[in-house]
Amino acid sequence: MTKRMIVSGGGTGGHIFPAIAIANAVREQIPDIEILFVGAKGRMEMKRVPEAGFAIEGLDIYGLQRKITLKNLFENLKLPFRLWKSMRRARQILREFSPDVVVGVGGYASAPTLRAAVSMKIPTLIQEQNSYPGISNRLLAGKVNKICVAYEHLEKFFPAEKITKTGNPIRKDLVDLQIDKDEACRFFELNPTKKTLAVIGGSLGSRTINESVVSFCKELTANNIQLIWQTGEYYYKQLPQKYKEMQGITVFPFISRMDLLYGIADVIVSRAGALSISELCVVGKPCILIPSPNVSEDHQTKNASVLSQAGAAILIADNQAKEKLKSAVFELINDEQHCEEMSINLKKLALPHASKAIADEVIKLIENEK
Q1: Domains observed in the chain
Q2: pTM of this structure
Q3: HEC assignment per residue over the chain
Q4: What is the tens place of the pLDDT at every residue in 200-211?
């Protein structure tokens, strides 16, 4: 009998790409398994998941709006109704698809889908990406069957007997990264003899990082440092054309060939989402992390602190980026010994086979149910 799995979550690339990696890893072991994603309407998973070859259903759900405005206050007042509506829709999807297991990876759609699955006694697994779990996963922890984590010492949040440390799933092409610098230089139209800085402010972009880079990108080119710059879709449209046309600078709203970016970059400036950190550890690229302050539980700062304390990253607070990023970039990219030490320390933290480890846990739940 054909097995079926639902994977729920999304909102950002940090949730979507691990979800796709898990689905692909399960499919490698059970080729005929039917997989359905459940995401949030209007979010990027509704585009990225079908591009990866999977079907997806959308829930009419969003998170708490933290910025205080009249519009957001009105949206927050509607949130309980949307949660109730999403729970009903999630139950309907589960009844119709009849999955053997439900996997939650975080994001707006994950909580109602997992809650519905638990109430219907369907085996469930949480993939917790961060060093400090969000409130939804903490509330669900006592009810789900398995919790796959990427960091140590999460027993204070989750039942110890349910925890397995697997790491965070990353894109398969990065696990055994074959660096072809010439191909990367052709793709980004850059010079293979010059040092390269890569700036990736998360899949949605970062205003703080973008504004910080604007202030010194001319100095980069003046010092023979090239720049690959992922701005995010929204900020790409706002960026003046002169920066997009500068020699030695390549600007993208979104970069799909991260393997080539990691292959050419000497130093990377990044937000501190769980996916970004896991990828940086596996590829061992020296990095400067600027955690987003606009996330629940300030989990990006906690993620970045783990690397900073291990000598694997430089941590700069968001409100200090405009003041400190420029000097940090120039100091690090010109200090080959520091870069080498950071690369070694990053790889010590890497868990490159997380996708398979999580897939193994998913399959155990399916087999136990049988």
Answers
A1: 4-169+353-369 (3.40.50.2000), 173-348 (3.40.50.2000)
A2: 0.81
A3: CCCEEEEECCCCHHHHHHHHHHHHHHHHHCCCCEEEEEEECCCCHHHHHHHCCCEEEEECCCCCCCCCCHHHHHHHHHHHHHHHHHHHHHHHHHHHHCCCEEEECCCCCHHHHHHHHHHCCCCEEEEECCCCCCHHHHHHCCCCCEEEECCCCCCCCCCHHHEEECCCCCCHHHHCCCCCHHHHHHHHCCCCCCEEEEEECCCCCCHHHHHHHHCCHHHHHHCCEEEEEECCHHHHHHCCHHHHCCCCEEEECCCCCHHHHHHHCCEEEECCCHHHHHHHHHHCCCEEECCCCCCHHHHHHHHHHHHHHCCCCEECCHHHHHHHHHHHHHHHHCCHHHHHHHHHHHHHCCCCCHHHHHHHHHHHHHHHHC
A4: 987 677 889 999
